Amino acid sequence: MSKIAIYPGTFDPITFGHIDVIKKGLSLFDKIVVAVSDVNNKDYLFDSKERIEIVKKALFLDLKLNKKKITIIPFSSLTTDLCKKYKSNIILRGLRAVSDFEYEFQLAGMNRKLDKKIETVFLMSDVENQIISSRFVKEIIKLNGDIKKFTTKSTIKLLKKKYE
């Protein structure tokens, strides 16, 4: 039986921090479902269809990751429901700093309460990518800063287009 991990997030836009988590996850799991949130409780720069395309281009065009091991989908349900749908008992989450831990710890606890079979696995991105956040990337590009160290070429191109 293959081990499938669900990696939920907004990915608005995807960063090298997210990508680190995906790459590390691929060494632990047979397949990763990158679940792009379609819930409208945040003020997104890109809609969910755009974010899915950005993630696909970043992972498959820029980085040439294995399409057979990664599925990218929109979702607007509970993550635990998504786990059932994809026959997974693993939620993959990234941690950057201690400040992320409290929220992620509570979220993992709530998911566990919703479904006792669900485990949350936390992975840290590499040190050089731990400070990266989608919010900072958007702020830097908006102010005409250089974001080459934070995300992929195709993502940068789409961000620049958005702020023209």
Task: Provide a descriptive summary of the structure in words.
By secondary structure, the chain is α/β, with parallel strands linked by helices. It has a single domain (4-162), classed as HUPs (Rossmann fold). It is 43% helix and 19% strand. The chain has 6 helices and 5 strands. It has a 5-stranded parallel sheet.
Question: What tags apply to this protein structure?
Answer:
Rossmann fold; 5 strands; 164 residues; alpha/beta; 19% strand
N-to-C series of helices and strands: EHEHEHEHEHH
Count of beta strands: 5
> What quaternary form is this?
single chain
- Can you name the CATH architecture? 3-Layer(aba) Sandwich
Main sheet record: 5 strands, parallel
